[in-house]
Structure prediction request, 458 residues.
Amino acid sequence: MAKISVPHIVTGFGGKENIAQAAHCATRLRVTPKDRSKVDIEALKNVDGVLSVIDGATQIQVVIGAEVSNVYREFIKLTGVTEEAAIDENLDLKDELKAKKGGLLTRFFETVAKIFNPIVPALAGCGILSAGIMVAMAFGASTSSPTFSHIVTISMAVFTFIPFLLASSTAKVFKMNEYVALTICAAMMAPAWANLLTAGTTSTTFLGISFRVINYSSSVLPIVCAIILASYIEKGLDKIIPGALKIILVPALTIIITTPVVLMTVGPLTYAIGEALANGVNWLFANGGWIAGLVYGGIYSAMVVLGIHHGMVPVLTQMISTNGFNYVSPTSGSANMGQAGAAFGVWLKSKDKKLRANAASACIAACTGITEPVIYGVNVPQGKTFFFGMAGGAVGGAVAGILRLKAYAMGGPSFLSFGMFMGGEAPFVNCGLVMVCFVIAFVVAAALTYLFWKPNEK
Prediction:
C-alpha cells in the first residue's frame, strides 16, 4: 500500500482551521469538523491508502486500516488538536442502534466490551505463551524441567487470577473505588475457601445462613457481578454517610456488606450460570456437529460488525479456564478467513488499482488475525463480498463442527496463531485440520466472489 498522505487528508477536511476534534479506533480516523460544508468527501476518498470514507451522524470517519495510529499521530501534529485515547471500533453502529429498538441489548454488549477489552492484551499474551508451550510439548518438552515448568506457571497467571483483572476493569466502568473492588475480589479468592474445599468442606454458614463454598480462581461472571453490585452499594452509602466519615465508613461498609452477600447469593448463582454457559456452548458444538459450525461460522462476521462478538469473550474465557479448550475458535477463525478469501477474490477480479491494493493488503492482514481492514475497508463497502465471506465462514465452520476441532488457548484465530490449536492427544492433527478449515473458508469465499461479484456492484 502506498504511503498515506496525511496533509492531503487535512486538506480534504477543509484545512486544520476546520478541525474541531479528532480521534481514532482500530481502523478509522474519526474527525469532527467545525463546518461540514467545507469537507470534500470525494477528495478524501481519492487519497492513496484511504479505504473508504463514512459520513456519520456525529463524525466523518476515514477508514485507513492497521496504519491508523501512525496516521493519527501525524494528523494531530499537523492540525494541533488535542490527542485522545483510542476508542471502540463500533461506536457509530452502536449510536445508530441506540436510537432504534434493542438499545438495551446494545448497551449490554457495549458494557461487556468495556469490561473485557482492557484485559484482552493480557489474555492474548498468555494465550500466545500457552500456544508456544503446546508446540514445545508436542516436540517433547517436559514440565520436569524447572525452567519450562516456570514458563507454564507464568502462562497460566492471567487465567488463575483473572478475577483481579476483571475487578479492576469493572470498577472503572461502573465508577467505584478500584482498590475497594480489588479488596472484595481478594476476599472472594482468600486461601481459606480453597483450604475448606481441600478439607472436604463444600458448604459453610454466615449468620446462620448456609452457602456453597467455591474456589473463585479462574471464574469470570461472579467477580463482574460482585463489583457491579458493590458499585451501587458504594454509591448508596456515599449519599447517606456524612462527609467527615465517608473516607472510613464507605469503604468498610461496602466491603462488609458486599462480600457476604456475594458469597451467599450472587457468587454461587453466577458461578453456576458461567459453568452452564461454557458447558452449553461446548455441548452445542460437540453435539450440534456441522449445524452448529455452519450457523456460528456464518453469522460471526455480522456479530463483529455489530460489536456483539464481545459477548463471547467471557464465555470463551470460562471455557478455557474450566475445560482447557473451546470448540468455538476454529469456527470463528473460519469466519475471519472467509472474509480474507472474499477480499482475495476482489483482488483477483477488480480492475481498480486502488481497490486491488487495498484488498491485497487487507487480505494479508486478515490472514494474520487483523480483520478490521478487510471487513470495514473492503467487504462491507462492496456489499456482496461481505456475504460471500460469511458463506465461506459457514462452510469452513461446518467442517470444523463435524470434526469437533478445538482451540486450547485464547487469541485471535488465524493462520499465524496456529499454536493455539495444538493440544489434546493429537495436537498436530487438530491443528492441521483447523488450518484445512481455514483454507476451505478462504477458497469458498474467494471463488464465490470471483464468480458472482461484479466490480462497482454492491
Summary: The chain is about 65% helix and 5% strand.
